[in-house]
Structures are given as C-alpha cells and as structure tokens.
Amino acid sequence: MNYQDILGRCSETTVAQLASRCPQTLDVFRRYVPQIDNQREATIDMVASIADVEPEQLCQELFDTVMEQTSIEELDTDVLLELILRGYDAAHLAKLPELHRLARKIEAVHRVSPEVPKGITLAIKNLEYTLRDHIERENAYVLNRMIHDQPPRPETPIAQMNEEHSVIKRQLKKLREMTRNYRAPESACRSWRRFYQELRNLDFRLSEQIYLERDVLFPRFQF
C-alpha cells in the first residue's frame, strides 16, 4: 500500500478534505505552514510548494499520521472502495500484461533449463483472465452498490465474489508452488529475477485486497 491509496492524489486532495477524515493531519500541515487554517482549500502539493518541501515527504508524513490514527479495518466505506478501485484493481490490470510478456520471454529464452517452471505463461494468462472477469463483475454488481454505505440489494452477489476470491487464491498458490515461492535460481537472468519479484508483489497485493474485501468490507453489508 502507498500513500496515494489512502490520501488520494496529492495534486487533488485538499487540506480540508484530509482534515475532515483525520483532524490530526492539521498538526502535520502546521509544522510546515503555521497559517494553514487560511489555506484549507489548498491541495497537498500546493502546501508542499508553499513550504518548499518535496511533495513525497509531506504525503508520506500525512499517510503515516492517518494510519496511526485509523487502522485499515476502520476506514470509511467510501475510502475502502476508492482504495480497492484505484489502489488495487487499476494496479493489477496494469501489471498483468507486463507479467504475461515476461513469462513468455523467460519460457522462450530459457526453454532448455530444467529450472524454468513449465506452463508459467499459461498460469499467468489464466490468472489475468480470471481477475479481469472478476473485477468487471465485482465493480458493476457489488462495489458500486456499496457507495455511501447504501444497504445492498438482496441479489447482490457477495457470496459469489467470495467464492471467486477462493479461486484466485488457489491460482496464486499454484504460482507459488511453480516458482518455489518466487525464488529465482542462481543462474536466473535479470528479467527472470524481476519477473519473480513482480509476481511476489502481485501475490501480496492481491492477498491484501482479498482480505480487505472478504474480512473488512463485505461483512459490513451482510446481516
């Protein structure tokens, strides 16, 4: 998780918006701009410019403050939805085509090596297909119905989404087994090592997202 997952885009989120969610962030702003109460409509990036500090430094301090005050399990539903849609789904869909290309390259270049996991390209392709289909339907029929804590319709397929989460987790387990827990052999080239590291990151982020949906978000709408 990075700070934009929680703060939103620092070029768009204003002091007032962030302070309404976490009043303690005003103390951070005041360390840089003592008269911040007169700049409530300024964005985080604008405050960084006024204070002559790197936006990343200010954003990271604000993120740390928000997370100290609010555990991820206590985040507002709309914040969780934004985190899932922009912080997780968008990143997965952008990363999977690159992983597919890397898998195909490694299987082709190192096809004679016994340490190349046979069928890894197909496994990545299957995960991409499963995840794209899942994300499209979950967003349309589940997440969009939860905005502003709206009570779910009786036909909202929460149980089906959780079943699909289990399918995705099995696919991730298969990838871990195929790659020996993403441990590249000593002879692996730079692309191979990068591929495994990116796969590890995807596994972590997907598992984190499934936890947020299945154990934090969805129970709020199951009575």
Quick summary:
By secondary structure, the protein is mainly alpha-helical. The chain is built from 9 helices and no strands.
N-to-C order of helices and strands: HHHHHHHHH
Helix content percent band: 55-70%
Mean pLDDT over the residues: 90
Tertiary shape: flat
What does it look like?
The chain has 223 residues and is mainly alpha-helical. It has nine helices and no strands. It is 66% helix and 0% strand.
Topology:
Layout: H1 3-7, H2 15-21, H3 25-32, H4 44-51, H5 55-69, H6 77-109, H7 120-141, H8 158-178, H9 190-217
Helix pairs in contact: 6-7, 6-9, 7-8, 8-9
State the main characteristics.
223 residues; mainly alpha; 0% strand; flat
